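Let us practice reading a record.
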Amino acid sequence: MDIYICKTCGHLAFEEAPDNCPVCNMPKDAFKSKNNVFVESKEKSPEAEVKHVPSVKVVKTCGLIPEDTCTDVHVRVGEVLHPMTEGHLITFIDCYVNDVYSGRVMFTANSINPAAAFHIKETSGTVRLVERCNIHGYWMTEVEL
């Protein structure tokens, strides 16, 4: 899988770099090829996988948007909850639905846990969740709806 990273905001694009970053709108030349981004993270901290791989729960009945087709995807960073301190934190979780970037939740270290919920209109397909730790890099999980 070809992976490209936006040098401005850290967004990952899969297969090819977009004309403009969907997060920060930088042009295609702001992306660099980084096919080993996930391998580097594991090599940097092999024991840290338990605190970095996104843990996902798919809930078929949406609790927030019951009037429309909606599947809840609850994401928590780490089987053992990742710390959120000024020096060590999850900066964002990105969501891709059927290989299309769909949204981002950003975090600071102030008073919040590294978790999010995405309310997805699709009822089937694949959801890819990518998170970035400011120290240990990028980690990913894919689930079927």
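A brief commentary: The chain has a mean pLDDT of 94.
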